[in-house]
Amino acid sequence: MTPFELAEPATLKEAIALLDPDDPTVRPIAGGTALMLMMKAGVFRPGKLVSLRSVKDLTSIDAAPDGSLRIGAMTSLAAVERSAAVRAHAPVIPRTMRTLSNIRVRNVATIGGSLAHADPHMDLPPVLIALGAQVVAASPAGERTIPVENLFAGYYETVLARNELITSVVIPAQGSRRAAYLKCTTRAVHDWPALGLAVAVESDGASVRDARVVVSAATETPTRLAGAEQALRGGTAGDVLWRQAGEAAAAEVETISDGQGSAAYKRQLVRVYVARALAAALKPDGAN
Q1: N or C: which end of the chain has fewer CB within 10 A?
Q2: CATH code for the part of the protein at 178-281
Q3: Which fold has domain 5-51?
Q4: Which one of 3.30.420.10, 3.30.465.10, 3.30.1070.10, 3.30.365.10 gives the CATH number of domain 61-171?
Q5: Residue 177 φ then ψ, to 5°
Q6: Are 143 and 136 within 8 A, CB to CB?
Q7: Are 96 and 20 in contact (CB under 8 A)?
Q8: Tens of pLDDT along 230-269?
C-alpha cells in the first residue's frame, strides 16, 4: 500500500469537515473490511482516510415512538445480528446476517459502511429496500433522508456527496408485513451470490394487499421489480400467484453477466427465486 494520512475525529462535525468534496483521494473509513482490500490490491490509493471509529453517537439501536427502528451507521453487522430490538422489529435481518460473509467480517464491518460501499452483491441492501428503509446522511449543508432504494447510483456508486456521511439507517414499523430473503451462490453459502432476492408482503387473509420485490447481485444495482409487485397486488396468495409474479419478474429484470453466471442464467434464477421467496415469507414460521 502507498503511504496515506489517517485522521481520527471525535465528532461527526469534525469528520465531515475533514472530507474534501473536490478530492477523491480523501475517504471516510468505517469498518474498513472492503476498503482495505481495495487498498492492498492497489485499486484505491488514498491520500487521507478519515476514521469514524471514535465518532460518538453512531452505534446505538433505538426504537422510536412511531414504531420505527433507528440503527447508528457505525453499528457492526454482528451487533445488528444479535440485537433483540432488530429481531423483534424485522427478524428477516438477523436471518439474512447468518450467511452474510463470515463472522470475522461481521464483527468489524458496519451497516453504514456496507451501504456506502455500494457493492451490488451485498445482502443487506435488497432486504432494507424491501422493508422500506431510509438512510439519514449528514453534510456541511445539514441532514437529508434518502430511501435506500434511491441510494445507489451505479456499480460501487451512491448518490452521496464526497463530504457526506451516512449517520443512521431508519426502518419503518412493519405492521403485518412479512419478509424473506433468499440468495443463490455458486460456491460456499457466504460467497458472492449470483442472485439476492428480498420480498416483503402485506396480506389480508388470502389476498395480497401490497408487496415489494427486490433483486440484487444479478443486476448492476439493487432493483425493485414493479411488474412483479403489480402482479401480486390483489391476488390470492398461493403457488399460482407466486409463479405469476416470478414470470413477471423475469420478464422485466435486466440481469448482468459476471463470474457468478450469465445474464440468461440469472434471469431464470429470478423466475424461480421470486416464487420461493414469496412462499417463504408467508409460511407460518416465515422470516416476517
Answers
A1: N
A2: 3.30.390.50
A3: 3.30.43
A4: 3.30.465.10
A5: -65, 135
A6: yes
A7: no
A8: 999 999 999 999 999 999 999 999 999 998 899 999 999 9
CA angle 119, 27, 23 (to 5 degrees): 115
Q: Give the start-to-end residue ranges of the domains of the chain.
A: 5-51, 61-171, 178-281
Q: Residue 189: its pLDDT value, please?
A: 61
- Give the whole-angstrom CA distance, residue 143 versus residue 128: 20
Q: Which residue has the cell 420505527?
A: 68
Q: Which residues pair with 200 in a beta bridge?
A: 179, 212
Quick one: which of 210, 145, 184 has its CA closest to 271?
Answer: 184
pLDDT per position as a tens digit, 114-154? 999 999 889 999 999 999 999 999 999 999 999 999 999 99
Share of residues in the chain with pLDDT > 90 (%)? 79
Do 61-171 and 178-281 have matching folds? Answer: no
